[in-house]
Amino acid sequence: MVSLIGQLIIDGLGMGLIYVLLSTGFVLILSIPRILFVAYGQFYMVGAYTVWACLVLLKWPFFISLLVAVLCTSILGAVSYRLIYHYILKRHFLSGIVASIALMMILGQAALLIFGTHSRGMPSVFPGMIRIGGMSISVEKLVLIMLTTAVIFALYFFLRKSKTGQAMRAVSFNADVAALQGINPERIYQSALVIGCALAGFAGAVMAPVYAVSPSMGSIIITVLLVVMFGGMNSVMGAALGGIILGLTLSFGYYFLGGGLAQILLFLAISIIVFFRPGGLFGESINEF
Questions:
Q1: Domain presence at residue 186
Q2: Strand, coil or helix: what is 138?
Q3: In the chain, how many domains are there?
Q4: What is the CA 16 to chain-centroid distance, rounded?
């Protein structure tokens, strides 16, 4: 029983840390440039397909493919900002949502045209299993956990210690006051979108060797929205804790209750939390990183 619980915890952490990356990037985009970026899941898909193409078609090493995926999604985020959001941020909030929906549809259809509707797999990048106390853990899943944990800590120190991270926190509180202190909000808006898209691309890239790659991967935005509502719409800490809790809940729920019932109970629990705490668990501290 102990080994089973440990196995479920490892599985939950693997997926939970992916939700942490995605939810944190989404909160950065939501709380700094104030964009409800519903196209975010498509960047996750782009990162996964980029790694698949580099590994399977070009035969590049995994870590080079991972770097290419992050660069591609970062550049795509920067281009999206310069061509779209740079011109509509000062307009109505709904303009950003409409633009995000359009971008989501464009990227989704592009993936269907280029890669088709079938799921794509790839050979094992880190083959082998490790047995620890009766648990069998794949090396790929351990690498996923280690890479995502390293990126999460790096992001935390970036937001807390770097000048750009401190500028992001200042702009998230009040862009006008931050501008009086010599901060360029426009540059910070673009940086937040680029970093958020890079996190989505990284998440998709490290997930690609473990799970199949398909155009429907972008639907993960629904789960990301649930995590963000659970933790707090403007709280990076809430997004991180919400991702871990969601991953562990689904891991145990799928095993003991089955997929359908586990998801129903999860949605019910989140609905109750949002009903009594509309801002989420950490929603009282608005814009607190």
A1: yes
A2: strand
A3: 1
A4: 10
